[in-house]
Input
Amino acid sequence: MANENSSFQLLANGILKENPIFKLALSMCPAVGISTTVMNGLLLGTAVLFVQVFSSVTISALKNYIHPRIRIPTYTLTIATWVTVIDLSLAAFFPLAYAKMGIFVKIIVAFAIITMRLEMFACKEPVSDSFWDGLGMGLGFLVGMVVIGFVRELLGSGAILGYDVLGFKPLLFFILPSAGFFVVGLMMAFFNWIEVAYAQRKKG
Amino acid sequence: MKNILTIIFRLTVSCLIAGLIMGMTFVFTNKAKKANEHAREEKVVYSLLGYSKANPIPDSMGLHEIFRYVVSDGETQSIGYLLPSEGHGEAESFNFVRIDLDGKYLDSSSVTITGEKVKEQKDRDAAVQIALGAGKGIRFVDQTIVVTEGDGRFAYLLGGKFPGYKTHIAIMLALDPSYSILGLEVMEHEEDPGLGAEIEQDYFKNQFKLKPFEKIKSIEVVKTPLPSEYFDALEGRVDESAAVDIMKQYSDQDIYALTGATISSAAVSSGVRAMTKKFAYRLDTLDRVLNEQQIAVPF
Amino acid sequence: MIRTKKLIFLAAALFALGFSSLVQAAGLVTSTEFGAENEIIVSFSHSVDLGEAADPDRYTVFEEADPDIRLAITNIDVSSDGKRAVIAFADPLNTTQTHIVNTSGIGGVAKSSFSVSKSYLGYLFSILISALLINNFVFTKYLGLCVFFGTAKRKETAKGMGVVFTVVIVVACSMSWVLYNYVMKPFDLNYLQIVIFIGLTSLTVQAVDTVLRKVNPVMFKSFGVYLVLVIANCIIIAVPLLMASNEYNYFETFMLSLGAGGGFLLALYLMSSVSERLELAKIPPSFKGLPIAFIVAGQFAMAFLGFSGLQLF
Output
């Protein structure tokens, strides 16, 4: 199955083919709610990356000791532990940035993507493969968040990472939270369109 | 049966390990968190006074903290102030002065606590409780920093929290000895970005600067646009002396509301109004009592 | 039989809560309330001497949190039968705070003290409305979206998911409140919030699953499949966290969780109604499915923006 793939392929899989936000359409809450700036996207993406990688590795390392009937509670416990760790660390070392993200770091524990990945991949594959897969998924999420954040920050406040790029604010609407829906929807449609056009070109 | 036992055993073990990991992280990060909080508060304090890393605070300036408590003794309540006592440098000692609700002096007790521990609420509360005895209930309300320059007072710094448009807004206010405003800093808020969040911008916050106490007691917001020369002065686009002149011209003017955020602007101005009035009343009462009772304080 | 008993109990509880601004002050005052923005209206239990009641010196009014700051009274209007007094103040009152009024020598009572606050029932109701409309968890807080888009395709699935979710969240939140107040706060275990709350939710889902299977298999067949999805819903962890950070008491927690579940149900229902219509509409091929759902949700979010700043009580 996927265990013959090289680490690079696993990585690329997470970022492109099975990108959590745009393709699998999972864990979209922060993509809509918090992606107002690139910085937010980077921070939350890093947090998710951390949780995904550590959970995948932990579960993969312990897969022989997990009783099948308590699979799900074990996954939940692992994820919750790592989320608490990253939450405490971010609160202590990056207090200003953490304050902007509010409750979203703690909510990582409820992301479907992480549990799903543990269930589908980590409990069957060796540790190193799980590591690359976790990294790929986490990076996919990070890339997705950063791209959305880029679009919203540029069009909403004319700045990137806080640096004023455009010198004026094109459309304040984009940093209003409700615009998150529009941006994500439009971007999904855009990716769909690219795929369809690419497939058509390949055919004819 | 054996199945269930193994399950329970493994689950317990995993819970314990998880708990251990989280506990260790907590202990490790807690210290950093507290240090960061104090550093941030210090930074805000210095910037409100007009100093920063590049322009550090001179040695002649002292920062003294007053902690206010509400003491309940059965049905009656009184206000208690935890103050540093004079000569507090080597022998760190504090005084707890109680004033009744009508502004009359009640009593004062000596509190032993180090200057470091007094910043932690738990240690502070415990020390005050010991000084007062077990019969009274105490509740910490807020703290004020009195800034002295040489022998005289330079500024008062107070924090306050009040309801905003969304949830609440927490600010730190700097007042000069005559209770006119030196500066304002927004610490926390949950207002809309681009609208209410603009209360963090200089052109709103700095409108409060140099407003005299008489104006603050009745300050309101007006929904007219900010004059451009005032805007430039507030944003620091003109040199300092010119900016101060312009701001003085507007010192009797109400606050110009933010576009699209009238309620947030009104919330901040009424919050500042309430905070300043209450603080002025309380500090005047405290000063009078300290004078009458000849209690020595380093400010 | 049991239903009537429950109704009576509920009515009694509401009655008691609703009249919480009722006073127990030596029977002098029957009720108090805030009037116009700088007024307090007091109703006496018996006629009081007009001169005494209109004398500002006999009243001391302050906000409960600031007992040393006395509010300045400008004048007092007493009704001719001596049973109602309107106290007017120099500055507008901060009605979010409880105010305490102390009287001396009015109506033959030497000293009396009573509190004035906005109705507690109103406050609870405002928490409910806030979680339901103003801070709707899906459209204003952007939580629970994965499950939202998954189940908002048909009205039946929407209703099923909404109801199951509301039940689970109310139960889980109540248990979280108990654990938070009696275990986490005394032992300073706040960093275990995430683990404990999600653990309680899983437990609740398991419990509801088992109970429903045994008690009502028919209902289980229609609703059971949604139970698994509840855990993946971000709202389920957000509500206990919100409860903990706001330090709500039990009634407030109950209202919050009810509002959150209700808001989710409302959002699902609205979305599914539109979804069913969308299936018949002409949509460009790249937009089919999720993209157009997102755009519709965005429009709902903008509409719900209109509720912000709503204050009912």
